[in-house]
Design brief:
0% strand, 72% helix, mainly alpha, globular, 7 helices
Length: 184
């Protein structure tokens, strides 16, 4: 009993010292709201420089089932992690036809990647289950967006429709994140 495993003690100290920092980052509603707001604003800023005319047919063609955020904190964090992962991947695809400001586009890509990494740490540190039912809805949503872009050959209008759709879902996530929380 007098000889403790040194690596166990180090791990235990790391958990005691670092877990509150990671958990505070994950459970800090102000930071979550700020990040969602920044991402939404950056998406909107992309359209400020160039607003397409004549994209109404494409906008009418997109039919997606939007995922929603759970009130339960663990599910919400897991959903956000998956959504930011898939959004980050989506906005790395064929963007050659877009007329967006490249600096603002890079800022959006960085914001999405940063939030994905943050929520990945949260999921790992909160030891959340990986296969929640909402995961299929989130994956299907992004697959529908990806399929739409592919069908439309990653056209300027299809990207603008996806940009607007992503702005809408981020607005929904923002509103849902402001609601009182139900802890695990």
């Amino acid at each position: 009993m007098a000889t403790l495993n040194v690596s166990f003690v180090v791990q235990l100290l790391c958990v005691i010292v670092l877990y509150p920092v990671v958990y505070a980052k994950c459970s800090n509603q102000k930071e979550q709201m700020y990040n969602l707001s920044q991402t939404r604003q950056t998406l909107n800023d992309l359209a400020m420089d160039w607003r397409p005319r004549g994209c109404i047919p494409e906008a009418e063609m997109i039919m997606v089932q939007r995922p929603t955020l759970s009130k339960e904190e663990g599910e919400k964090v897991w959903t956000l992690k998956l959504a930011f992962q898939l959004a980050s991947e989506l906005f790395q695809q064929n963007l050659t036809l877009v007329k967006w400001n490249s600096i603002k586009l890079r800022e959006l890509q960085d914001l999405l990647a940063r939030q994905y990494m943050t929520y990945s740490e949260c999921v790992r540190d909160m030891r959340l289950r990986r296969n929640l039912p909402i995961g299929d809805v989130v994956k299907n949503y992004f697959k529908q967006l990806d399929d739409f872009l592919s069908r439309e050959s990653f056209s300027l209008c299809s990207w603008e429709v996806v940009r607007a759709e992503m702005g809408s879902i981020l607005r929904d996530f923002y509103k849902k994140s402001k609601m009182p929380r139900k802890h695990v």
